[in-house]
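Recall that a protein's primary structure is simply its ordered list of amino acids. Everything else, from secondary elements to tertiary packing, is in principle encoded there. The following example makes that idea concrete.
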Amino acid sequence: MIKVGRIQLMLVGLLIIGFIIMGKEFMILWMGESFSVSYYVTILLILPCIITLTQDIANTTLVALNKIRYRAYAYITVAVISFSLSVVLSRKWGAIGSGIAIFIGNVIGHVILMNIVYNKVLKINIFRFFKENHIKMCVPLILFAVVASILQYFFPAKSMFLFLVKVCILCVIYFILMWNTALNDYEKNLFSELLNKIFQVFGRNLNVQR
């Protein structure tokens, strides 16, 4: 769970932090100023994923052990809380109010309750999981957020092409930060093998074309 979770966190962290820093600019370039409110709603919807998407192994274990009812309880909790709060908060804040309601429901149901289930029912040392994953990888994630914020502040994109160039630059910076501050030998070997296979495929394609 830790091995898979760390790789998932690396990918999910890039997407979520990247969207938080650059998502508003992307939405404006893609759909216009009128959709800028959707940026805040999207952040509220995806934030819990930085935890939930790194715990797929635990979810699969629940299915394998025929304990899926705990997952159902979590979904019911999320639905009840999200619906109840949406009725109240959407009247005052509209779509953002509904986003806040869903965010609270997801945190209580999918994050808090499910981690209690993983700890008590599956006997997973969930504290070790967070220590090895989120705590040990927080340094490159924070550094990336700072670098991305600085780049976004000084170099706002005026076109989708320039935006994509900026995204590519940040992806390279993110990978360098992860490689030098967070990845262990197993993960470095994993990515090295993947890159070697990609280079071999492209090399063969180039040879065929020649």
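Residues 2-31 form the longest helix (30 residues). DSSP finds ten helices and no strands in the chain.
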